[in-house]
Amino acid sequence: MRIIYTYVCTTHKVYRVLESPVAKTPQRGNLTGNPRLVRDIAADIHSSIQQWNNVHLHAVPILKNICQLKIDEKFPDGLQDLCDILEKDCQTLDEIVCTLKLLSHQMNVVASLNKGPENLFLTWPTYKFGEVTEQIYNVYKDEAEVKRKVLENVAHNYEESWKMLHLTTWVHQVNISENVTTLLESLLVETSLR
Asked: How wide is the angle at C-alpha 92 spanned by C-alphas 148 and 61, nearest 5°?
């Protein structure tokens, strides 16, 4: 990349880049082969996480309603229906985790097949794509297990502290940290999806 310095005055430099750094990346335009597979898998991971977020948000008011209905040891009318809806949401989350597992496996296979010395996209070596997708999968797998525990216990506890624990555990998703969000965004940026 050539940079030309143009002096405006004695204390400031103005830089003009003659050619975009992205123009020199090995992948631009229509992709084929391994780069296309990596970009498609990254897009599918992003789509799966968007689906996760939608299901997660769908379940929050259901969980709140369960907590409001459960006031003593009895099982009031409507509680079973709400629990069934929450169970369907958990099943959907489990399906998303299975999809993430498959995508992680596919990404690792593509990474193992690409033995070339150059990067597929901007800066990441090929193995990094497999590592990142595996980390994303593991985090969502762990969070799905937590959500299953909430489902199993929420209709049996009527004390306020337990109800708040279940609701808070569902809403805050402690396993899905900012680091995982950053990894996903980095994956999207690296593959030029962002």
From this structure: 70
Examine the pLDDT at 8 and tell me if it is beyond 60. Answer: no
pLDDT of residue 36 exceeding 60, the answer is yes
Instruction: Please tell me the distance from the alpha carbon of residue 123 to that of residue 129, in angstroms, as a whole number.
Output: 11
DSSP annotation of 43 reads H
Separation CA 99–CA 92 (nearest Å): 11
Spatial contact of 108 and 132, defined as CB atoms under 8 Å apart: no
CA 94 – CA 59 distance, rounded (Å): 14
As beta bridge partners, residue 6 has 14
For 143-158, the pLDDT digits (tens) are 999 999 999 999 999 9
Please say whether the beta carbons of 128 and 103 come within 8 A. no
Q: What is the pTM of this model?
A: 0.83
Q: Residue 45 phi/psi, 5° resolution? A: -65, -45
